[in-house]
Amino acid sequence: MRERYAEDRNVMTDVLSIYVPTFFIMIGLSIISPILSIYAKSFGVSYATAALAVSIYAVARLFFDIPVGVLGDRFGRRPVLLFGSFIITVSAFLCAYAQTFWELLLYRFIQGVGSSMWQTMRVTLLQDILRPEERGRILSYFQAFMLIGSSAGPTIGGVVAEIWGMRAPFYAYGLGSLICLILSYFFIKEPRKYRSNSSQNSLAFSLALVNQILKNATYSAACIATLTLFFLRTGLRSTLIPLYGEAELNLNKAEIGYAISLSTLTNLLVTIPVGHALDKFGRKIILVPSLIATSVVAIIFSFTNSFVDLSLACILLGLSTAGGGQASLALASDVTIEMPHGLSMGLYRVFGDVGFIIGPILVGIVSDAYGLKFPFYVVSAIVFISAIVVQLLSKETLHARKKLRSMHFNEADAYVK
Which residue in 147, 183, 214, 241 is a FRET match for 305, CA 20 to 30 A apart? Predict the structure, then answer.
């Protein structure tokens, strides 16, 4: 029956079902990033209130990640993922038609719910279908398409807004989500083994399993790592570096954007090689040095004095963070093979969304109290502590790949429409 699995899934189906839909979702999401705060501010609210249009999206994901995972375990991954794509598409167009700020806020919350459904089911499907010995490199391809979409989106969004107005990027977002929905409908298949209406997939039973899942030290360490990485993404790269570049280095917005883009580009260039390394050498052996290197790079930022210095630090940041996301996800996936995948991945994403939310808040509080250099040291300490936690708590999972494969891939794993 493994031969049947091999026929159902090949390079082309991976590209059309995993990578390309991810690209269109991410390019749509990043298309609105240059104008979202400006669009929210156009409704006549304060800057602080306008920021809610950004944060409410992450708050919605935080609250719905686990329930969505439970739904995926009960009713299947495909219907939840497709419905999430549909919600994202509709809410994107609704944002363009919003007449008040509070209406926009409602649509952004709904959009966050749709994103939770899509993102959680996407990583759950990856856990379902990937063999342990290929997990690192496939996740690296997945990450590469996300980075390409995230890198291209802001430029497209800025141009679209300049030509057709601030509402136009939301139409582009909706179009990208619609393409993702169409591709997912035709190419996503449901793993038979995980399609169940059993009472064991009820919300109450699933929540009772949360404590059991978190007792796995390797899984908990992976969750802490992903919290740290999302904290870095929003706290360091999206918040602290722009503030520091403008206030301390007197750089203009274009120069700051170029420096951050270098980080993304460098990350993209090394993501796939690092993914192969995850499958050859292991997850932990990549993740811990990555976190330690990132801790050092965070300190380096505090010594930058020019655009060139900042650009070099951003390049180092791209190098040091490459593979961290794939390594932590691979660790979490490896050790929860026998657990409900929707629940384990939903819980994993909760940690990421917590880091996403607290990153800018913590950086802002520390910056207000101690200036814009000290937060780099705080970030460095948090990342270094995370590296210690992963080193002490987690175990390498790659050595057990043959056992995991025999447990996970059998006749029930064949795909069905």
Answer: 147
> Quick one: the chain helix, strand, coil %, rounded to 5?
85, 0, 15
- Enumerate the β-bridge partners of residue 191: 415
Distance CA 400, CA 163 (A): 55
Tokens of 41: 């501010």
Which pair of tokens denotes residue 262?
A: 């270098």
Phi, psi of 289 (to 5 degrees): -60, -35
Packed helices 77-97 and 101-129: angle between N→C axes, nearest 10 degrees: 160
> Which residue's structure tokens are 């391809």?
141
**Nearest by Cα to 129 from 277, 289, 337:** 337
- 299 to 303, 317, 361, 376, 377: CA distances (angstroms): 7, 11, 20, 6, 6
Q: Which residue has the tokens 């006549």?
A: 44
Residue 57 neighbours by CB distance under 10 Å: 24
Query: The whole model's pTM is what?
Result: 0.82
Site of tokens 């190419």: 187
Q: Return the number of other C-beta atoms located less than 10 Å from residue 46's C-beta.
A: 9
Q: Which residue has the tokens 């298309």?
A: 31
Q: CA-CA distance, 114 to 118, in Å (whole number)?
A: 6
Cα–Cα distance, 113 to 118 (Å, whole number): 9
Q: For 339, phi and psi rounded to 5 degrees?
A: -95, 160
DSSP SS3 for 372: coil
pLDDT at 399: 65
Which residues have C-beta within 8 Å of that of residue 388, sequence separation ≥ 6?
none
Mean pLDDT for back-to-back runs of 10 residues, the chain (417 residues):
41 73 86 79 77 83 89 88 95 93 94 92 85 81 83 78 86 92 88 52 66 89 94 84 86 80 86 89 92 96 94 94 87 85 88 88 86 93 96 83 47 36
Q: Which amino acid is at 398?
A: L
| Pairwise CA distance, residues 386 & 380, whole Å | 10
